């Protein structure tokens, strides 16, 4: 009521015309479950009535089939969420059913206008130099005092100068888009004239503007997606038609104008974020409700058995109550989740040092008290969270239902054992996972360089203290020096000859010279008064005020816009798919055992109990433990090879990689230039070219860093005796913007190196074909510098005498002497140094038939040349540029990534699009990069791989796998481990499923012959633990007996089916043989014990056929010894339903095993070679 009253003035305004959905809405999972429940209810009641002639029992059967928990969970979630949103004044329901549709939303269309605020900012100037600070100050004053609208406006007092005024981005825009990524919904917007800027990579589709109307474009997008069968949510403050046509319209109240025609009304993007945050929770609540309903009906149906105590509808009512509580708590987690921190929108680069100091000093700092006792509790909570995650496995509800059914049918101890196995598996897997994660955290902490925090005392003295980057806060003063990694974004306040390598952020290979003057309106790469986290200081020193830390830095903000959507990676998911297909077979086996028991006149309750025990035993409950331990074992093994696995579940995906994408600069290359080609002009030697090029280079004495091009020339000249000058130049003219050459004078000799078109124009007597040489070198992907010289007359040398009052006069005179009269000496070709191992890596990937894609910001000629030098076979039409890429439609981009190899002139956003196009086309992609400009693409790939040679980059923060020490060739180790992991796990799965299949087959045959399952629930659980879980785990984490060459693409389901069939048949045959012999020579309990020994020993022997590693041998021996002890100790033997065996019993079991194993070893010899392996 309070929420309605607060918004009543706005909602009372006349509403705009509305539109309706023109296609039929897809059926929701809840409706589908309710409809299915209705059919089951009718059929079940009719069958019970016909067979029992009892109206009350038939009525109970109808009540049992009612899916109460589905509806209760769904309604509880929606009601709790709606009340919570209203109480927090974050959203108001206009349509009472709106929140019930959250679980169906799979497309979110965002009006681009809601991603901006009403506040305006200066975006640019024209009619004057962009670096004219006085013009910017005038424009800023105009913005502060005037009532302006977005667009160009004349600047007062500056004739001919105009300022571009644009809306400021919303502080929660990035967080809202990140939430759509987390919810794994398709995110769509419109490409309007104001542009999307850095938010562009976060969208799956950007619809072109239809005419001048954003509203019309949004409506068309809604109609198109609904026509394709999607359920669409629209977020807008003005697009009334799109909001009303959507399945869920989220309207943001405008400051003025008409109220939106929407299902949900929110005040701003914080309410939108909360609703988007509820999407995965709504789907979780629906899945939970359906599972609870299914389980409750299954348990209720067992209570319909006359000899079982209880009434059928009771579990259904209990399931509904649990659903109400579950829906409530699921919604409460959404409501109580903290809102994301707004991204600071201050433009620190546009402020002077004084303005930045004042703005930062006015910020309030959080008052955080030190916590002295949370470390232990923190680890405990981590462990409990890990246990909860392990229990979220799809097997958990199946085994839990089996345990509950076992208890209802009169075997509470057996139910307790089933539950104990379930919990112990989860605890074991969680403990191993937590241990590995803590070890990984320690390794990652070693990769983070410290920061130097500076404190200025009242007397002006400065204290320096070393801190971790995460301990910094906005407004702190930090100091950086040569080779330091910048720990946070910061505004420079003092500097001395400071140059920073920002290639990891911007892709610019040359160091950036920093300044104190503000750079308003500048793009990220031109903000020379700022330091950015993750970049490396090349030379000089500086003091700076921290402006952003952690997730608020430019590096992290760019990467966080694209989050990984690959919930399908990891052994748990992959094996979960196998489990999903096998557990219905388990239910069928249990049902068949029950039916056979009834046909053999077994009491109904006992027959059902036998069926439940077989169904529970046939479920491979060891699968989650095998998955967790195998992944962490692989991750630990790779660490020894210099490969740090940040996300262990990604190792599995490495074994399924279809294509590998590489960044070039810093990844396939070292981002270190070197001279690779020297061409001489007439009458000059190679040594002369290098000597003159070195003389034209600035002296590196007294500098900690020189230009990368100069460093390459000096390194090449150092190999030539006498080429490196012993002293400093009498005069030197450096490179600068607008002057693409450098020159030096030693005595009477002037040497020059620079752009060929400039230097050649100043040379006399140039050969006619000399330009062909330049073009040839450029076609090879080289940066070409022309080298020339001239002899100066005494008068010219005298004119270069430095005037201490006018140093620019010397430079101007020297520049004039470089304009003509030069003699061409030759050319040097400079290229990036390929990383050691890159060519071999690409060759090996080609041999393995794993395609590669090179994505670079370089010129297409350079990219093509580098690819060919590294051995990539490439045709001219396999290169595409960023401009050509952006002109393609989504379908054309998918075709391009299949056909093209080199992607040149690609921006960071283009890199993301290339990876996403590969993923859309069904490829499992790996993206390898080294810098922040690769981070978003790394996160978008199935497997993100960062390479770290020095410092700390955003790439390895976003990556799943990190190649340490710049060793790119270790990628092969990672791919091999992923492939071998699948071989080991496939063998382990064969153990689990083969053992369960043999037990189920034996139970079915035994029930057909005697009406009773030969093995009890406890014995079957013993088999699962002793025979399956421990040996399978050992098999999964040990080295395979026959190493498989790379080339597999995940699990080979045909080979797995053959292995399970052979294992199940072999084990069942041995068990049946031993059982028959035991029945002929003794009573039923002894026969079951002999069969149990045969089953376990046959399984263990087949495991040893697969691998005889020390761990497998030890586990198999320990398992057999444990079985022998359990059978031989009288009290325990009786508890397990066994009896101690004598020599004859052991001989019968082991003889059956020996015969079966001999058959298992011989049969593969008669198969084809492909089947045998």
Polypeptide structure, described:
The chain has 1173 residues and is α/β, with parallel strands linked by helices. The chain has five domains: 102-271, HAD superfamily/HAD-like (Rossmann fold); 348-359 and 414-561, Calcium-transporting ATPase, cytoplasmic transduction domain A; 571-619 and 978-1167, Calcium-transporting ATPase, transmembrane domain (Up-down Bundle), CATH 1.20.1110; 640-668 and 834-974, Rossmann fold; 672-833, 3-Layer(aba) Sandwich (Calcium-transporting ATPase, cytoplasmic domain N). The strands form five sheets. The protein has an eight-stranded mixed beta sheet with strand order 18-31-30-29-19-26-28-27, with helices on both faces. A seven-stranded mixed beta sheet has the order 1-10-9-8-2-6-7, sandwiched between helices. Strands 11, 12, 13, 14, 15, 16 and 17 form a seven-stranded antiparallel beta sheet that branches. Mean pLDDT is 82; it is low at 366-377 and 1168-1173.
Can you give me a brief rundown of this structure?
It is built from 42 helices and 31 strands.
CATH class call of the largest domain? Mainly Alpha
Helix content: 40-55%
Query: Which radius of gyration do the C-alpha atoms yield?
Result: 36 Å
Helical region count?
A: 42
The proportion of strand residues reads 15-25%
CATH superfamily of the largest domain: Calcium-transporting ATPase, transmembrane domain
Shape, please? globular
Main location: membrane
Membrane topology: Multi-pass membrane protein
Region (Disordered): 1-32
Catalytic activity: ATP + H2O = ADP + phosphate + H(+)
């Amino acid at each position: 009521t309070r929420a309605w009253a607060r918004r009543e003035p706005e909602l009372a305004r006349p509403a705009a015309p509305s539109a309706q959905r023109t296609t039929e809405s897809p059926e929701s999972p809840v409706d589908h479950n309710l409809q299915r429940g209705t059919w089951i209810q009718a059929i079940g009641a009719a069958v019970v009535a016909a067979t029992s002639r009892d109206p009350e029992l038939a009525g109970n059967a109808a009540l049992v089939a009612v899916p109460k928990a589905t509806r209760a969970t769904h309604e509880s979630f929606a009601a709790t969420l709606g009340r919570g949103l209203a109480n927090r004044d974050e959203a108001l329901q206009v349509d009472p059913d709106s929140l019930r549709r959250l679980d169906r939303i799979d497309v979110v269309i965002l009006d681009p206008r809601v991603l901006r605020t009403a506040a305006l900012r200066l975006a640019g100037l024209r009619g004057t130099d962009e670096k004219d600070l006085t013009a910017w100050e005038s424009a800023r004053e105009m913005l502060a005092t005037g009532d302006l609208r977005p667009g160009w406006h004349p600047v007062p007092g500056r004739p001919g100068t105009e300022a571009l005024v644009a809306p400021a981005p919303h502080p929660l825009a990035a967080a809202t888009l990140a939430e759509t990524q987390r919810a794994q919904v398709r995110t769509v917007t419109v490409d309007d004239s104001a542009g999307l800027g850095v938010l562009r990579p976060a969208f799956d589709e950007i619809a072109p503007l239809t005419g001048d109307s954003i509203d019309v474009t949004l409506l068309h997008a809604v109609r198109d997606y609904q026509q394709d069968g999607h359920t669409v949510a629209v977020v807008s403050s003005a697009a009334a038609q799109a909001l009303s046509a959507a399945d869920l319209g989220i309207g943001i109240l405008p400051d003025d104008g008409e109220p939106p025609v929407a299902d949900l009304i929110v005040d701003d993007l914080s309410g939108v974020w909360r609703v988007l945050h509820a999407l995965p929770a709504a789907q979780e609540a629906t899945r939970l409700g359906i599972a609870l309903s299914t389980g409750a009906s299954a348990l209720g149906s067992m209570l319909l058995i006359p000899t079982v105590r209880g009434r059928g509808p009771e579990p259904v009512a209990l399931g509904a109550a649990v659903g109400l509580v579950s829906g409530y708590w699921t919604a409460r987690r959404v409501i109580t989740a903290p809102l994301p921190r707004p991204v600071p929108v201050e433009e620190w680069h546009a402020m002077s040092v004084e303005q930045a100091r004042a703005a930062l000093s006015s910020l309030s700092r959080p008052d955080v008290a030190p916590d002295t006792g949370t470390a232990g509790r923190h680890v405990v909570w981590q462990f409990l969270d890990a246990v909860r995650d392990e229990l979220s496995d799809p097997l958990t509800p199946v085994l839990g239902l089996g345990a509950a059914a076992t208890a209802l049918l009169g075997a509470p101890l057996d139910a307790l054992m089933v539950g104990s196995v379930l919990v112990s598996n989860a605890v074991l897997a969680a403990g191993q996972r937590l241990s590995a994660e803590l070890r990984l955290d320690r390794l990652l902490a070693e990769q983070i360089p410290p920061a130097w925090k500076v404190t200025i005392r009242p007397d002006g003295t400065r204290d320096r203290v070393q801190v971790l980057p995460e301990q910094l806060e906005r407004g702190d003063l930090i100091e950086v020096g040569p080779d330091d990694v910048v720990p946070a974004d910061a505004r420079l306040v003092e500097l001395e000859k400071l140059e920073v390598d920002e290639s990891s952020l911007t892709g610019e290979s040359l160091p950036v010279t920093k300044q104190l003057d503000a750079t308003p309106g500048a793009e990220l790469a031109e903000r020379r008064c700022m330091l950015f986290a993750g970049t490396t200081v090349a030379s000089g020193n500086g003091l700076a005020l921290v402006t952003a830390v952690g997730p608020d830095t430019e590096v992290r903000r760019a990467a966080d816009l694209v989050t990984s959507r690959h919930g399908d990676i990891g052994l748990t998911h992959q094996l979960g798919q196998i489990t999903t297909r096998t557990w219905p077979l388990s239910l069928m086996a249990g049902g068949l055992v029950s039916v056979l028991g009834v046909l053999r006149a077994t009491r109904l309750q006992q027959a059902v109990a036998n069926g439940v025990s077989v169904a529970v035993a046939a479920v491979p409950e060891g699968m989650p433990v095998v998955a967790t331990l195998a992944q962490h074992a692989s991750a630990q093994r790779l660490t020894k090879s210099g490969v740090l696995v940040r996300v262990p579940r990604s190792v599995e995906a490495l074994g399924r990689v279809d294509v590998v994408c590489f960044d070039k600069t810093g990844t396939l290359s070292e981002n270190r230039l070197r001279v690779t080609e020297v061409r001489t002009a007439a009458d000059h030697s190679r040594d002369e070219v290098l000597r003159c090029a070195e003389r034209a280079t600035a002296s590196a004495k007294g500098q900690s860093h020189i230009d990368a091009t100069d460093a390459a020339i000096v390194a090449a000249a150092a190999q030539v005796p006498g080429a490196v000058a012993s002293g400093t130049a009498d005069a030197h003219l450096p490179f600068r913007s607008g002057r693409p050459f450098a020159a030096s004078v030693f005595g009477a000799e002037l040497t020059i190196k620079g752009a060929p078109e400039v230097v050649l124009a100043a040379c006399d007597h140039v050969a006619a074909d000399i330009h062909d040489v330049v073009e040839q070198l450029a076609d090879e992907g080289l940066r070409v510098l022309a080298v020339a010289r001239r002899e100066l007359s005494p008068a010219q040398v005298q004119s270069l005498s430095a005037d201490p009052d006018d140093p620019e006069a010397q430079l101007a005179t020297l520049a004039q002497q470089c304009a003509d009269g030069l003699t061409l000496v030759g050319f040097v070709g400079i290229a990036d140094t390929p990383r050691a191992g890159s060519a071999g890596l690409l060759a090996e990937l080609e041999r393995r038939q794993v395609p590669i894609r090179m994505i670079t910001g370089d010129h297409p000629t350079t990219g093509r040349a580098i690819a060919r030098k590294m051995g990539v076979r490439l045709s001219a039409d396999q290169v595409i540029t960023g401009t050509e890429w952006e002109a393609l439609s989504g379908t054309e981009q998918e075709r391009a990534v299949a056909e093209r190899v080199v992607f040149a002139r690609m921006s960071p956003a283009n890199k993301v699009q290339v990876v996403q196009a590969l993923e859309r086309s069904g490829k499992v992609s790996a993206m390898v990069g080294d810098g922040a400009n690769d981070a978003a693409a790394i996160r978008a790939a199935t497997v993100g791989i960062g390479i770290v040679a020095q410092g700390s980059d955003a790439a390895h923060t976003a990556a799943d796998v990190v190649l340490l020490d710049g060793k790119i060739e270790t990628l092969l180790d990672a791919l091999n481990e992923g492939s071998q992991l699948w071989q080991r796990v496939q063998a382990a799965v064969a153990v689990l499923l083969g053992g369960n299949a043999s037990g189920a087959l034996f139970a079915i045959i035994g029930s057909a012959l005697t009406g009773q399952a030969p093995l009890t629930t406890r014995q079957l659980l013993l088999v699962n633990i002793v025979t399956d879980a421990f040996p399978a785990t050992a098999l999964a984490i040990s080295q395979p007996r026959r190493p498989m060459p790379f080339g597999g693409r995940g699990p080979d389901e045909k080979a797995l089916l053959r292995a399970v069939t052979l294992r199940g048949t072999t084990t069942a045959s041995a068990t049946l043989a031993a059982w028959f012999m035991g029945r002929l020579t003794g009573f039923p309990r002894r026969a079951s014990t002999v069969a149990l020994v045969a089953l376990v020993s046959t399984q263990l022997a087949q495991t040893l056929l697969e691998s005889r590693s020390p761990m497998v041998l030890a586990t198999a021996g320990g398992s057999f010894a444990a079985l022998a002890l359990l059978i031989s100790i009288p009290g325990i033997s009786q508890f397990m339903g066994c009896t101690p065996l004598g020599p004859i019993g052991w001989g019968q079991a082991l003889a059956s095993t020996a015969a079966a194993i001999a058959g298992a070893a011989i049969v593969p010899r008669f198969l084809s070679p492909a089947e045998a392996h």
